[in-house]
Design a protein that fits this description.
The complex is a heterodimer of chains A (115) and B (117). Chain A is 0% helix and 48% strand. Chain A contains no helices and twelve strands. In chain A, the strands form three sheets. In chain A, strands 2, 5, 6, 10, 11 and 12 form a six-stranded mixed β-sheet that branches. Chain A has a four-stranded antiparallel β-sheet with strand order 3-9-8-7, with no helix packed on it. By secondary structure, chain B is mainly β. Chain B has no helices and eleven strands. Classes of the chains: A mainly beta (115), B mainly beta (117). At the A-B interface, strand 5, strand 6, strand 10 and strand 11 of A face strand 4, strand 5 and strand 10 of B.
Chain lengths: 115, 117
């Protein structure tokens, strides 16, 4: 069964700092990759996704992620965070190579941005 | 823009009682998923439907759990004889798949928080 690891449980940054959140998955076949964000008091929202093509994908609010197949990684980045980015971020994998459409999520990384 | 809706948003019940949750997907979405999320964890897959057909079930879905999507629109998730370990947030997601076998993007609802006393 596939698994997803998010390396950081809680990240604290000052506004304007750069952000990189790690995500590694275990499945060796074809995957679709996602980052979801959950702002305080709100439901999960899609931040960005990778299905195929350019491994560098851009999402909403200035976020981007890079798929590195050889490293089984899909790290999330943002060059300059804002206080409004305070939220919990979840990486998710869909192992379509296994014929399954379920998402396997990591445990999440809580981001706190200090004004 | 009508997203995925879930009802109720909160449910408190006593151990041993049955509970039922409802999910209304985004209009015309043909796939519907149920996940469970406990504190400090990411969502865990329970089951999914394509139209009326339940196509995949997780081993987490014990025989006390049953899900239906009778007309291919809304879905219900029932838990019988609830246990304290069932306390969690139950999330519903929906997606639109044009071609069978193609990838999809799941859109999540606000969840139903279940507390079993």
């Amino acid at each position: 069964a596939q698994s997803v690891s998010q390396h950081n449980h809680h990240v604290i940054l000052s506004e304007a700092a750069s952000l990189e959140l790690g995500c590694n998955y275990s499945y060796g076949g074809t995957v679709n990759l996602f980052w979801y964000v959950q702002y305080p008091g709100q439901h999960l929202q899609l931040l960005l996704k990778y299905f195929s093509g350019d491994p560098l994908v851009k999402g909403i609010k200035g976020f981007e992620a890079e798929f590195i197949k050889s490293k089984f990684s899909f790290n999330l980045r943002k060059p300059s965070v804002q206080w409004s980015d305070t939220a919990e971020y979840f990486c998710a994998v869909n192992a379509i190579g296994a014929g399954s459409y379920q998402l396997t999520f990591g445990k999440g990384t809580k981001l706190s941005v200090i004004p | 823009d009508t997203g995925v809706s879930q009802d109720p948003r909160h449910k408190i019940t006593k151990r041993g009682q049955n509970v039922t949750f409802r999910c209304d997907p985004i209009s015309e979405h043909n796939r519907l998923y149920w996940y469970r999320q406990t504190l400090g964890q990411g969502p865990e897959f329970l089951t999914y439907f394509q139209n009326e057909a339940q196509l995949e079930k997780s081993r987490l879905l014990s025989d006390r759990f049953s899900a239906e999507r009778p007309k291919g629109s809304f879905s219900t998730l029932e838990i019988q004889r609830t246990e304290q370990g069932d306390s969690a947030m139950y999330l519903c997601a929906s997606s639109l798949v044009i071609t069978s076998g193609s990838a999809d993007t799941q859109y999540f609802g606000p969840g139903t928080r279940l507390t079993v006393l």
